[in-house]
Amino acid sequence: MVGNGKTNNKRNKSQSTKEQIEQETISPEASARATKRMSNRERLRAFLSLFKREDHVLINIVADPDAMASAMAIKRILARRVEEITIGHVNEIKRVNNLAMIQFLKIPLQRLRTFKKDKFNKFILVDSQPVHNPELARFQYDAVIDHHPITTGWDAPFVDIRNEYGATASMLTEYLRAANIKPSVALSTALFYAIKTDTQNFVKKATAQDVFCFQYLFKRINQNLLRRIENADIRKSELKYFKLAFDAMKISKNRVYAHLGKVANPDILVVVADFFTHVHEIGWVFISGIYGEKLVVIFRCDGYKKDAGKLAQRLFGKVGSAGGHRQSARAEVPLKNLDGHLVGHFSTRTLQRLTKKHLT
Predict the structure, then answer these.
(1) DSSP assignment of 217-244, as one string?
(2) What is the pLDDT of residue 98?
(3) Residue 296 and residue 273: Cα distance in Å, rounded?
(4) pLDDT, tens digit, for every residue of 92-115?
(5) Angle of CA points 22, 28, 29, to nearest 5°
(6) Which among 59, 293, 303, 349 counts the fewest CB atoms within 10 Å?
């Protein structure tokens, strides 16, 4: 009888362990914890075990430097292991630096909506998670590799999410090293630029691993290509916005304000705002414009006893999306949410008046 009791206890323990494993399998957080405990080589082996020679693989991204570089690295790792690898992006790529990166480094991208899902049998999501975009959520992924905070409501056989890392490109550099793959000049330059961009030159969150990967890649990059990508901020057609900014500009108490009116691309507001941060003795920069049916406002400051993110939230958090970091922030407000008298009459004076009461 005692023996049967022990057997039953063992069976119950075995069943509870099995149930726990099954529960962990569908939890991204639990899967990520398990992957984090692995060495780089173990992680690589677990990832590669998902694929066979006859597989047709689709790598999905929201195209930015980190996502594109990481996708390039995965494509290189799987190059001789599967039949076909395609990189698909869900977003329209407008930023000039990103277009320059694609052009100079010859990154093979296709818009995700241009091909059929059933052409592929394996799916990878990198530098994002399924819930980040409705178009990404349509897929059941075999692997998700990312550095953003872990979300819920999805699962995958392989999950490598390390949100302490400053860039997914650092994680993929570790994969390359574990695979004994020396990245090409183009791939090294892409990964280097991605780490530099996502950590904002290590001003934002980063780990010792990010620094180590950055140093490792530095010896392999093409400095000329990197400069061409970094310096490609403005289209010729966008030079007019600088004239508009200078004409509209108002300076008061070491603060620069400028409303540019309608813009063809909201990224130009970021470029203009960053330009004004180089002006000596300027503590705050506020640049706004109308894009589509939204008012977009870009905030910049030195972050010393100032917090752009909190200011953006106080000003526009109740009528639109707003927030950011101490030095930089952004607000996007649907025009329908603005007071009636502001729609069609928004100006630099309006921008100045809205911010003034919060900057005393």
Answers:
(1) HHTT--HHHHHHHHH----GGGHHHHHH
(2) 95
(3) 12
(4) 998 889 999 999 999 999 999 888
(5) 100
(6) 293
Asked whether 266 and 289 are in contact (CB, 8 A), the reply is yes
Phi, psi of 331 (to 5 degrees): -130, 140
Confidence of residue 16 (pLDDT cuts 50, 70, 90): very low
Token pair belonging to 49: 């075990």
Single out the residue of 127, 130, 145 nearest to residue 32, CA to CA: 145
pTM above 0.85, yes or no: no
Averaged confidence pLDDT in the chain: 89
Sheet of strand 294-301, all strands in order from the earlier edge strand to the far edge: 250-252, 255-262, 284-291, 294-301, 328-334, 321-324
Q: How far apart are CA 80 and CA 42, in angstroms?
A: 20
Helices (H), 291-347: 308-316
Q: What is the CATH number of domain 2-230?
A: 3.90.1640.10
Best CA proximity match to 200, nearest among 305, 291, 327, 49: 327
Strands 255-262 and 284-291, how do they pair? parallel
Residue 180 tokens read as 């004994």
* Confidence check: pLDDT of 38 > 50: yes
How deeply is 37 buried, as exposed, middle or buried, from its count of CB atoms within 10 A (0-12, 13-18, 19+)? Answer: exposed
Q: Higher-confidence residue: 329 or 19? A: 329
Per-residue pLDDT reduced to its tens digit, 241-281: 999 999 999 999 999 999 999 999 898 999 999 999 999 98
> What are the sequence ranges of the domains in the chain?
2-230, 238-356
Q: What mean pLDDT comes out for the span 134-140?
A: 93
For residues 164 and 151, is the Cβ–Cβ distance under 8 A? no
Amino acid at 207: T
Q: What does the pLDDT read at residue 234? A: 84
DSSP conformational letter for 11: H
Please tell me the CATH code under which domain 238-356 is placed: 3.10.310.30
Q: What is the DSSP secondary-structure string of 33-77? A: HHHHTS-HHHHHHHHHTT--TT-EEEEEE--SHHHHHHHHHHHHH
Work out the average pLDDT over 39-59.
97
